[in-house]
Amino acid sequence: MLRLIAIVLTYNEAEHITACLETLRFADARLVFDSGSLDNTQDLARLAGAEVMVRPFDNYTGQRNAALEAVKDRAEWVLFVDADERVSPALAAEIQQVINQPEMAGWQIPRHNYLFGVLTKGAGWYPDYQTRLLRVGSARYDPARQVHETVLLDGPLGTIKEPFIHYNYKDLAQFRAKQNKYVQYDAQMLYEQGIKPRPYTYLLQPLRHFWWRFVTLKGYRDGWHGLWLSALMAWYEARKYWVLRRLRQEKH
């Protein structure tokens, strides 16, 4: 029985996978759980000494639960890491320390998010806790949340101090592509909940979202960078309700 397996979910992550796996050498084993990459992600992972398993992608929750199932008889703890994340030596040391606490079912880890190359600590991008260090057998992902996954724990949740390093969005094109996916998913969720946008919703909700990002979550601390990000996220909040409107029109 291994003490800790680090698992990286991947799909076409050749740009990141080698550097990511290099920071995970402190774990007893490293597993790349791939969705059928079309680039050389799998070859690079094996070259770095990691085990590779392939499972067709259904959704993020399905992938993570399948990965947990795959190692349930092999390890006591799992650390989920995204390919564009890095584990610093300080975080690795803290992880090795906290997994010695038998009463804990999981640990959440903050993230230092780099957006367009800038460390962003306001507008909701810090501490950005991620529940990623899980005791095998005491954790699973909520199947109702296929994106923005939610962990269900059979026991206490602790908080780690040292952050992941997350190279989030490298350019505007990548940002737009991911936000458009989130917009579609969130609008579908609102539709299934029976939410009906009012005429004022298309203006009021984006304004509220901008205020929340820039003022409440202190996006102003990042200067023009924070202002721009808050405005971008407000725009996608507006788009969410326009997509919801289209869904309702199509169905009714």
Could you characterize the architecture of this molecule?
The protein has 252 residues and is α/β, with parallel strands linked by helices. It has two domains: 2-168, Spore Coat Polysaccharide Biosynthesis Protein SpsA, Chain A, CATH 3.90.550.10; 171-251, no CATH class. Helices cover 40% and strands 24% of the residues. The protein is built from seven helices and 13 strands. The chain has helices at residues 17-22, 41-47, 60-70, 89-98, 172-192, 201-216, 223-251, and strands spanning 2-10, 29-34, 51-54, 75-82, 85-86, 106-109, 111-115, 118-119, 130-135, 139-141, 151-153, 157-159, 164-169. Strands 3-2-1-4-9-6-12 form a seven-stranded mixed β-sheet, sandwiched between helices. Strand 7 (111-115) and strand 8 (118-119) form a beta hairpin. The longest helix has 29 residues, at 223-251. The model has no long low-confidence stretch (mean pLDDT 95).
Features:
7 helices, alpha/beta, 2 domains, 252 residues, four-stranded mixed β-sheet, Spore Coat Polysaccharide Biosynthesis Protein SpsA, Chain A, seven-stranded mixed β-sheet
In short:
The chain is α/β, with parallel strands linked by helices. Helix content is 40%, strand content 24%.
Task: Break the fold down into its secondary structure elements and pairings.
Blueprint lengths: L1 E9 L6 H6 L6 E6 L6 H7 L3 E4 L5 H11 L4 E8 L2 E2 L2 H10 L7 E4 L1 E5 L2 E2 L10 E6 L3 E3 L9 E3 L3 E3 L4 E6 L2 H21 L8 H16 L6 H29 L1
Parallel strand pairs: 1-2, 1-4, 2-3, 6-12, 7-13
Antiparallel strand pairs: 4-9, 5-13, 6-9, 7-8, 10-11
Helix pairs in contact: 5-7, 6-7
